[in-house]
Design a protein that fits this description.
The chain is an alpha/beta fold. Helices cover 37% and strands 15% of the residues. It is globular and about 75 Å long. Bound molecules: pyridoxal-5'-phosphate (PLP). The site of pyridoxal-5'-phosphate has 13 residues, from helix 3.
Length: 372
């Protein structure tokens, strides 16, 4: 590779915006290292910002989903509809309750669950729909909310990848009965590991508060009302979250810039297709992902990723569809199976420079087959 100016670009990198060290040091000095004022502040800030009544922070996005499943009371004999293309945490948490995940196909353009496919999967056993907002896009929440209301189902949002994205002018995470967020290291707002649930339903809120904290009631010390867990976020983690939340404008504008630069440098390029955002959606893109056409590249997705890796560019594949993993015993779904084999998610962290993005795009474009 002599003469080649190789860059090393990781797929993800957490970014800090100004007050993280100060707030974390404050938490440590205060000796409030488990619960504490930063936890309460982060919960208040997130609820108010989203215009919902309640927020409960959690140890991660997966425990937020588990909390939601336990709160709505799904269990053996029930079915919950989840997308056939997504990070599998929502399906896993359904299985964890003893219920059965039923997979609905996605829209091949938006890569989010298709409400018409969801409707076809509803049976007398269906209790809930989990809408997963892939890569920062937002599912068709108008259609899903109407469907859930008409069929008397719970609607849960998995907003782990879509914090601050909007649908019809409203934040994602404000359409479901409960919505679940992740603050893991690569996410739009990070606390290292962490998450939260939002809801405006007082009963669900009270139930989730109990379950998050061992099922302990106010009745007296060590009195357990319900079966509970420990899904708490620490004050140290919440301090990081409060600092990130304070600087959300910078986070959002940096992510918009990264997304716009990728669109500029890959616009109209043969064999490279972006995720489609409908006019209803104003995304804050967590991860810029493209669908590659193996015919145009003369190589499959995994070979393309390997070649990018040789140029120092770390990428990730699309999520495997449940039909490909024996664990799930799921039927094939045309769009989900097609898309998941062709997606490459590109480095998308907010401090990426224009030079780095140009390099990634240039190397990707060069990998296409030369025309005769
Ligand atoms: C859509 C989605 N749901 C849930 C999770 C799980 O969140 P966590 O890693 O915080 O448990 C993730 C990823 O991390 C995710 O991308």
């Amino acid at each position: 590779m002599k003469g080649l100016n190789l860059m090393n670009i990781p797929w993800a990198k957490p970014c800090f915006w100004g007050d993280e060290e100060k707030f974390v040091a404050n938490a440590v000095r205060s000796t409030w290292i488990s619960g504490g004022p930063y936890v309460e502040k982060l919960e208040k800030d997130l609820a108010r910002y989203h215009g919902v009544r309640f927020c409960i922070t959690t140890s991660n996005g997966t425990s937020a989903l588990q909390l939601a499943m336990l709160a709505i009371g799904v269990g053996p004999g029930d079915e919950v509809i989840v997308p056939g293309f997504a990070f599998m945490a929502s399906a896993n948490m359904v299985i964890g309750t003893g219920a059965k995940p039923v997979y609905a196909d996605i829209d091949p353009d938006t890569w989010c669950m298709d409400p018409a496919c969801v409707e076809r999967k509803i049976t007398a056993r269906t209790r809930a729909i989990v809408a997963v907002h892939n890569y920062g896009n937002v599912c068709d929440m108008g259609a899903l909310r109407r469907l859930a209301d008409r069929r008397k189902l719970f609607l849960i949002e998995d907003t782990a990848e879509a914090l601050f994205s909007k649908y019809r002018g409203r934040f994602s995470g404000t359409f479901g009965d409960i919505s679940c967020f992740s603050f893991q290291a690569t996410k739009t707002l990070t606390t290292g590991e962490g998450g939260c649930v939002l809801t405006s339903d007082r009963k669900l809120f009270a139930r989730m508060q109990l379950i998050r904290n061992h099922g302990l009631s106010q009745r007296g010390r060590y009195w357990h009302d319900v079966l509970g867990y420990n899904f708490r976020l620490t004050n140290i983690q919440a301090a990081l979250g409060c600092a990130q939340f304070k600087h959300r404008a910078k986070i959002i504008s940096s992510r918009h810039k990264v997304h716009a630069l990728y669109r500029r440098y890959l616009k109209g390029e043969d064999g490279i297709r972006f995720q489609c955002f409908k006019p209803d959606v104003r995304p804050v893109v967590w991860c810029v992902a493209v669908e590659v056409d193996p015919k145009v590249f003369g190589a499959n997705r995994d070979q393309i990723m390997k070649r990018l890796g040789a140029f120092g560019i770390e990428t990730r594949p699309g999520f495997f569809p449940p039909s490909a993993m024996p664990l799930y015993g799921a039927p094939a779904l045309p769009a989900a199976d097609h898309i998941s084999a062709r997606i490459i998610s590109l480095p998308s962290f907010p401090s990426l420079t224009e030079r780095q993005i140009r390099y990634v795009c240039g190397q990707l474009k060069k990998l296409r087959k030369k025309r005769a």
